[in-house]
């Protein structure tokens, strides 16, 4: 927008004997009004551009958070859930903890033998492998002839005895904290763990044979020897190979480490503190079989092998869940790709670059999340129904014993599927909440955009009024100049007539004083000479 100025038209000055026109042009600045309007319009335009850009971003996000599923998508999701439920019911079956423990024992035993063989053991017997790792040959130039021992083994009685030592001694935990306490023991010559009440305690090392004499040896004993010692303890001692207490798994170890914190000390599970509950879980009295008097007749230890067994069983339960996931995501991908190819009119492989892959990828959008919610919900419904039916059958076999129903029901529930359904529902709900939030933001931006557009109209109206005011003033001044010019012209013509009328009275004087003047004037008027 260009600054406007008011032009002062020429001032005409008259004289009695002569006249002259003075062209005085004066520019009266009104730019401050125009400048204010221009700045306001520039600010509004910048705000509108910013709002438009953000609205475009919101539209894209809202589209991804909006469910675009149709009937076909729902049919496929339900069908996939039904198929996965059938697979779970007839091929996966119930959660078998004993089968999982057997699998865990087998894997741990094989691992212990292989690790012993890497250290020079030539046999393939588990008992021999454990004995070799615990009391093997001389280790290099260290002077140590025993196996891969641990300094804290000399504090067994102070840290729980044979049954609880591996749980209560933090250096026997297969976790990062276990490694840290193992190294700390090397440099402080103290063991760290808990007492019978779950309080953190520090105990002096009695046998320092596995305490390094210098920093490199301390690091060697605290890390490499520590790891190989844990391997020897995984399957129990050489006296009870395959059936010993073993090591606590990573989850149980982490829980025991957390139990010394003030927050967890106040937690009670039944009549036991959290620390006591973990101890009973590890030594087998919590999950063991009890007689009618409440005495334990068969212990079920929950150690590393048990954790591996649980992971194995959960892995079996994950099979139908993964199948369900793959079917839904695969169908979504194939169908959306076909829709893109049809919409873009793609006829050759070289034209696939025109595909909008964001619309095809079966991830990060509300549509696939809703399909997975329906599929996993269908699977979970079938799974729970199957568990209830089989639990009812077992209950009828035991004369309506409700505990048999509860036991069979729990063992038949696919917890991986339930967890996946919970995640799908949570994701769907969170996307819906985020969608509503973004829609509200977009509505607020539209309101703000309307406000700025109204302001822009007001600024443009103000600009028009300033221009109109300038034009009016200019026209008024032009009319005034024309009026004065008309008066001047009329007065000039009047003076000319008077001069023409007076020419006759001047002729005699001219002929008397300048006889040739009239002839010369006549010649000029006639011939232009």
From the N-terminal CA to the C-terminal CA, the straight-line distance is 57 Å
Task: Note the quaternary state here.
Answer: single chain
| Strand content range | 5-15%
Task: Work out the helicity level.
Answer: 55-70%
Q: How many DSSP H or I helices?
A: 15
Largest pleated sheet: 2 strands, antiparallel
Description:
With 529 residues, this protein is mostly helical. It has three domains: 5-59 and 436-527, no CATH class; 68-91 and 317-433, no CATH class; 97-302, no CATH class. 65% of the residues lie in helices and 6% in strands. It contains 15 helices and ten strands. It has helices at 31-64, 71-92, 97-118, 126-135, 161-168, 176-188, 215-234, 250-258, 262-265, 274-283, 304-344, 366-397, 402-412, 415-513, 517-527; strands at residues 5-7, 11-14, 19-22, 27-29, 190-194, 200-204, 268-269, 272-273, 289-290, 296-298. The strands form five sheets. It has a two-stranded antiparallel sheet with strand order 1-4. The protein has a two-stranded antiparallel ribbon with strand order 2-3. Strands 5-6 form a two-stranded antiparallel sheet. Strand 7 and strand 8 (272-273) form a beta hairpin. Helix 6 (176-188) packs across helix 7 and helix 11 packs across helix 12 (366-397). The chain is elongated and about 165 Å long.
